[in-house]
Amino acid sequence: MSEERVGFFTDTSVCIGCKACEVACKEWNAIPEDGLTLTGMSYDNTGALGASTWRHVAFIEQPQPQPQPDGRTELPLAQGESAPTPEGDGMRWLMSSDVCKHCTHAACLDVCPTGSLFRTEFGTVVVQADICNGCGYCVPACPYGVIEQRPSDGRAFKCTMCYDRLGAGQEPACAKACPTESIQFGPLDELRERAALRVDQLHEAGVTDAHLYGDDPEDGVGGDGAFFLLLDRPEVYGLPPDPVVTTRDLPAMWKHAGAAALSLLGGVALSFAVAGRGRR
C-alpha cells in the first residue's frame, strides 16, 4: 500500500445520537432509503447496518451503573438480562455510530470469487458493485455481520470509507458531518494514540468503564480500521466480544484437502497398477 493506513476512531462518550453521519453517508454515496420504520424497542429508526445503511447510530437505554461497596461501579446488564429498578429515574442513554470495521484480516476478501472486494491503497476494504456477482459468500464470512445483499439485485454493499473522497484528499462524509467529533478520521497510529489519551482522561474523571474496542492488532481480526471507545460491554452495543476472522482455518483446510486428494490419487494409481498386473 502506497499510502498510510487510515481509519475511524468513534468516541461514543460524546455521541449525541443526531444521526448526521447517517444522513451525510446516504447523501454523498447516493444510498437508497431503507424503510425508516421504528422497531418498537428504541427511538432508532434504522435498526442495524445493511446494504442501504452504511452508518447506523444505536440508541441504548439502560439503568445507570450502580455503586458497589468496594467503590467500583457495576456495569449495566446486557439486553435481555434483568436488573433491580434503580431509585428515581436512574436511566442513561448510550449512543454509538457503528460502521464497517475494515478489518486487517478481512474474511470477506478471502472468500470473494470475483475480486469485487479489494483492499485500497489506504488500507480500507471496498466492494466494487459492478464486479459483484451476488454470490453472497461475503455475508456469512463477516464476523461483525456488516455486509448485506441488496434485495433488488442481490449484490453486496457496505461502507467504502468514502473511497472517492479519500482519493481527493478529503475526509469521509460521516466524519465531516459529525458535530461533536465523536467520529474522528485520520492515520490509524495517530488515532490509537489519541484514543488511549481519551480513555485515560475519562478514567481520571471517574468514568472507569471507558475502554477501547477493536484497536488491538493482536485480536482475532488483526485489529480494526474502525475502532471504538465504549462505556459498556461490546455485547450491549451489538458487537461481538471476541471477533475472529472466519477464514482463519482455511490454510489448514486446504492442506488437509490436498493431503486427502493426494491419498485418493495414490489409491487410484495403486488400483490401476494391481489391475494391470492381474491381466498379465
Strand content: 15-25%
CATH fold-level topology of the largest domain:
Alpha-Beta Plaits
Distance between the termini: 63 Å
Q: Taking strands numbered 1, 2, ... along the chain, how are they ordered across the largest sheet?
A: 10-1-12-11
CATH class of the largest domain: Alpha Beta
Major pleated sheet: 4 strands, mixed
Rounded to the nearest angstrom, the radius of gyration is: 23 Å
H/E order of the elements? EHEEEEHEEHEEHHEHEEH
- The outline comes out as elongated
Bin the helical content.
Answer: 25-40%
Number of structural domains: 2
- Summarize model confidence as the mean pLDDT: 85
What's the helix count?
7
Count all strands and give the number: 12
Identify the CATH architecture of the largest domain.
2-Layer Sandwich
Unreliable segments (pLDDT under 50, ≥5 consecutive)? Answer: 75-88, 251-257
SS class: alpha+beta
Describe this structure in words.
The protein is of the alpha+beta class and 280 residues long. The chain has 2 domains: 6-237, Alpha-Beta Plaits, CATH 3.30.70; 249-280. Helix content is 27%, strand content 18%. It contains 7 helices and 12 strands. It has helices at 20-29, 107-111, 138-141, 163-167, 173-177, 188-204, 250-279; strands at 6-11, 55-63, 66-67, 73-74, 91-99, 117-119, 125-127, 148-149, 156-157, 183-187, 211-213, 226-230. Strands 10-1-12-11 form a 4-stranded mixed β-sheet. Strand 8 (148-149) and strand 9 (156-157) form a beta hairpin. The radius of gyration is 23 Å and the shape is elongated. The termini are far apart. Mean pLDDT is 85; it is low at 75-88 and 251-257.
